Structure formats: C-alpha cells, structure tokens
C-alpha cells in the first residue's frame, strides 16, 4: 500500500469521513499510520470493582450509575460519580471537570479509570478514587462491541474527537496494518541492529496492535529512535550542506579596536564571559561560517559578548547586524551601543518597523552603501528591502523568540560569503531542545553571573494582600528604589477574568500608589513614546513602571529592585524567570512578588517553585515537566515540529544516541532522497526542508 495514497482510498472512508479525519491532520495513509495510540487498555489488568483495595493503584472500568456536582469550600467544583461493574460500586471524585460532565450520561456512559483507591470523604465505608491519574470515556456504542475489545490483549486508544467513532478509527488502522506498508527506512540496518530496533514497517504495525508488553515497548523504542534520528539527520545535513556550499568569512585575530572597546568597559569580563569570547574568536577566524548559540541566564552579561563580536566584524571591514525581538530591547541596545561605539568612529543605525519613511530610507541607504557599520533592529531587519553592502556577522538576541526560518532569513542577507551567526538566549533551553531545534548550532554557556549580584527574593501572595504589597512598594520607592508592575493583558477582554494593565494602572495611580510617579507601558505605544518612557525610568524620573510583558527580555535598569506580577498564574515559569530577571541588576536587595489570582491548586504549586528555585535552567525543566512540551514550547515560538511519538523531556538519552548515530550514518552515506521524503511526509515542511539533495 502506498503511504502517499489519499485516505479516501480506504474502504469505509467517504468524503465526509475524509473531512473529519482531515481536521485532525490525517490526509494520507502515512498520516493515519503515524497517528499513534495515546495509550492501551490492558484488558488483562482491569480489576473488578468488587476487588479493589484502599491504597492500590488500579485500572477499573464500569458504567455510570449516578452523578452529582457541588462546590467545595475551597472554591473547586467537585463532580462525584458512582461507577459500577458486575462486582461492585466505587465513587469517583473529579475536580473542575465541567467539560467531562457534559459528555457523560447516567446509565449510558462508561468510564475507564486509572487511579489510586481511598475512602470516600467522611467515613471508612465507601471506597472512592479521588486521585485519578488518567481516565477515558467509553461511548455506549463502543462498549457494546465487547468481542472487539477482547480480541486483542492491548486495545489501542487514540485521541480523536467525538465525531469519529473509536471503533471506526481502529478499523481503518487495522485495514492498513494487515497489508504491506511501503514505508522506507532512514535508520540504516547496522544501527537498528545495534540498538535492537525494528524496521519502520514492523514497528508501525506493532505500535497499533502489540500482542505483548515487550512488543509494545520495542515498537515504541524503534519509533522514538527513528523520529529523533530523522530530525537530527535533517538538521545536521542542513548544516553540512550549508558549510560545504558556502564559504564563510575568515576574520583576522583580535586587534586594536576590539581591545579598546574591551578596555573601555566599566568592568572586566568574568572568566565565563572570557571563555565564551575566546570560543567565538576561534569560530570567527575560521573560514567556515560560525553558527554559535550562547546560552546564559538572565543578567549573565551576554550583550557585551555580542558587542565585542560585532566590533571584531566591523574592524575587519564588514557590517554587523543585531536583531532583537522587541522594539524596546532594540532601542535599549541602540542607546547603549551607540554611546560605547560612536566615539570610536563606528557608525550605528537603528531599524524598526515603525520608523518614519524618511528615517527608514536613510538607514536603508546607509546599509546598502556601507556608511552604516552596525545596525540594530527588530524583525524589520529581515524584510526583503533591507540590503547590506557586506554583512559579516549577524547576532540575534533572545533567539528563542525567533523561529529557525527567521534566523535563516537574516543569514541570507550576506553577499558573496555567508555571514557568521551568533545567537543569544537567556531563556534557558533544556538540553533536549538545544539538541533538537538548535541541533545545527554549536553551543557556548555562560555559567555564572557577574560578581556582586544580590539574590532576588520571591514571594507568592493572594490578591487579598495587595494593600500590604503596594505599601511595601511605596516604602521602597521612598527609599529611592524603582518598581515594575507587570500585568498579563493590555485591554480587558469580555470573556477573560485576567487583569488588564490599564485597569491596574488606573487603580494604582488613584489608590495604593497615589502621589508616585507612575507610567504605563505596553506594546501598542509609539516607539518614541516607549523610548521616552524607558528613558524616564532609567533616569529615575519615573518611580513605577506599570507594564505588559514587553519588558520581558533584556531591559536593564539597575536601580529597579521590586517587581510585582499581577495574575502571575498566567505565565510560564520560564517567562516569570525572565521577567524577574529585570530586577536584581544593581546593588540593592530585590523583591519579586507574584500575585496569584488563579483558583487552581496546580498553578499555585507551580508558582511556589519560583520561591525556591533561582536557577533558570532548573525552572525551565520544571516548567516543561509540569505543563508538558505543547504549552511550554508553544509559548516559546521555537520552530520545533510537533513530535509524533518522541518526548523531548523523557527521551534525552535516545536523542543523544540518535545524534551520535546520525553522524556515523552521514559518514557512511545516508540516502538523502529517502530522508527528505520521510521528513516531508512526517512534518509537511513545517519543520525544515533540505533542498537540492
Ligand atoms: P543578559 O545576559 O541578560 O543579556 P546583560 O548583557 O544585559 O545580561 O548584562 C546585565 C548587566 O550586567 C548589565 O548591566 C551589564 O553591564 C552587566 N555586566 C555584564 N558583564 C559584566 C561583568 N563582567 N562584570 C560586571 N557587570 C557586568
Ligand atoms: Mg540580553
């Protein structure tokens, strides 16, 4: 069976069903067979309800006999369900599951539940499962097909919408899996043998219909390896191709201008900064293109490394570009760098999307004729009309905000040579992600902060303490400090209970913070207004900056030592850590107060981690673990494909192996045509395309 064949060629799929399948991304046979089960119902291990015991973790399955909902004193919605099979009844307690309630019908719906058995509230009689680890709603028409369920030891359960019947879906997969699937293998034989992996066809068949647990494990192992191998192979080949086809610039070793800039700095580089700077110098002095990622926690001093690298490029007669994710950050870099470099006769320009036409034209001309040595800007830098005379180095600050494609676009602006590329990120990227998204980059770490930083003390508080919190802010301002108040949204929206920055601003300036010099900053302001505000805050004229997350990255005002984050539960931990990184930059004790407006116990627990953990890398790993890769990566705009089976968090070891083996496979000769084919099938070019193979 041809895997590219449209799904409609299958028996039982008409236009209507095809449409339904398309909604979940299934258009051809390959999409279908790589739609892997979410879990399996291990029939042999379902415990009769009459035999469950307190303290055990069990699988049970039964029909819903009764259902009731009430509000608890802690503000949670408790949904109680009585579930019965032929042997007994057990109570199930679900919290805040509005959606579930709507789906269930008493006497009709059945549930599969995996959870820990305890006693029902208020007694030692009735058993209850309150700690529900996972569950599945089994529709009525599904439960009737008992013979189907019993025919395989592990019944695959797929995440599919209500309008597709589980039984139908399984039948489709079965239809394909009982035939020969012509899917090619990218992982070479000798590697599969080494790791005891199945070929792809076998692995796919077994993942849907395993006969034993061992088979299931092996199928999973094979497919996870294959997926990570694919991505790594794609990225590494891309890099190689890049370097072979295009010559990089060979910069000369350090000289006067770089030394002067370094000597003019108000501080010495830390040992960590010095180490990274040396790594960069070596890269730049080679005639292959530099592609390096510099990772360092917020405040570790990456900017200065970027500046030195840019000066090195300029001293060699090339232009440099520094791309920042927000206008505010671009403005700030521009101000600082101009001050540092213009006395040395380096011409610095600023290019953002909102410049006036005339200003923009001037910058564009300067870049094209080479009178501008260094340009700092936002996404505006990657517009087609931006042409450089001889771009030698591209630095992207806060790389996690840009996708792989945007990075590539700026690189493409070099003329005869590929410009060197340096990417900076403060958002700690878990190792798994460095190896996947940034698999084509070399990585440097700045592992320590410059000396003399005071730790930031972080507190999680409920809104009822706001009067105390803002009194504290007021007291600190009276001592000469400054504060950030951060809110999630710009405007109030009707169907959200999130607090808006405007609302908070009005409230504070007429209440708690009356009499202080407050300003309101958000992304919709004009650049000039933003610049003035930041300038005012930097110079100390403004005491309190009420802001959205536009200040998240890079903003540097050492006298600001307090941050209050309203509605903190709406942010990820990595993002909160970024925000928090705005304070603790000077000599003063710094305080970050997270106001939790959430009602969810989990989000509170998550916030409490901020009190305990100050290492951004540890927080990022926790964030990833707690929210799952979808949300975590979603908020990062990373350019990572949706992985079909591998789990970036749990499969690190496999990833590392895959990476080593890809290198061997490439040396041995990898079939690029097949690789490209599979990459295209698997990710539909949303991820990467290796051209010209
Ligand atoms: P980030 O890595 O978050 O971009 P920055 O480059 O903005 O950090 O640096 C944070 C602050 O630390 C800046 O005020 C910068 O001037 C200062 N800084 C950087 N390197 C050093 C150093 N070696 N010694 C002292 N201060 C430093
Ligand atoms: Mg920075």
CATH architecture of the domain at 456-613: 3-Layer(aba) Sandwich
Bound molecules: adenosine-5'-diphosphate, magnesium ion
Largest sheet entry: 7 strands, parallel
Helices, by number, come to 24
Structural class: alpha/beta
- Note the overall shape: globular
Rounded to the nearest angstrom, the distance between the terminal CA atoms is 26 Å
Strand content: 15-25%
CATH topology of the domain at 456-613, by name, is Rossmann fold
Uncertain segments: 141-152, 634-639, 689-693
Report the average pLDDT across residues.
84
What is the C-alpha radius of gyration, as a whole number of Å? 29 Å
Key features of this structure:
693 residues; alpha/beta; OB fold (Dihydrolipoamide Acetyltransferase, E2P); Rossmann fold; 7-stranded parallel sheet; 39% helix; 18% strand; globular; binds adenosine-5'-diphosphate; ATP-dep_DNA_helicase_RecG; ATP-binding
